[in-house]
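Example record used in the benchmark description.
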Amino acid sequence: MKIHSGDSVDLEVSLGFGVKLTLFFRLQGVTVPAPGAEGGTASRAALAGMLNRGQGRVVAESGANTGEWLCDIYVQQPEGGEVCVNEAMVKSGFAKAVEAATP
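Model output (structure tokens):
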């Protein structure tokens, strides 16, 4: 896993039969400051901290207008259940919610 910013990551995707690809994903429904802008480093660190908590799952779809993979990431919590990383980034103030683009 490589974290580019507070809303974008490279993730390894298993296609089965030992075939794996590394793909670029952007968190759906959120925006963060650019890496060089004020707050950019903090949002990237917050995402890294959330993703390093344990096992997770990704729900992704192709961005109709952008060609990117848009995703929601869910991470297992030690006490049970899971948290949506996208929502947690907004609630913690490291990201802002945005409306999904319409095709």
